[in-house]
User: Fold this.
Amino acid sequence: MRRVHVIVRGEVQGVGYRYTLRMVATQEGVAGWVRNLRDGTVEAELEAHDDAVDAVLAWMAQGPPGSRVSGASVSELTPEGTRGFEVRRDG
Assistant:
C-alpha cells in the first residue's frame, strides 16, 4: 500500500482537472482527495497499491484536455486505509 501527497503546477484550474482526476482515480481503485489551491496549483492525496497510484500519477502528469501541466511534486506519506475519492473545497 502506498500513500502520496501531490502538488501539480501549470494551467490546471478551470479545465476539469479535479473532476476528471476523481473519475480516473475511481477507475484505478485509488482512494484520496483533490482540491484547488489559491496559488493556482492542484493538491491531492492518493492511496492504493503501488501500480494503481503510479497509473494515476502518470495521468496527473498529463491532465485532461485543455490543461498544461508544468510539473508536480510528490511526497510519500504513511498509508491510512482511506476509502473513496472526493473533490474537496478549495484550500
Observations:
- The chain has a mean pLDDT of 97.
- The chain is about 25% helix and 40% strand.
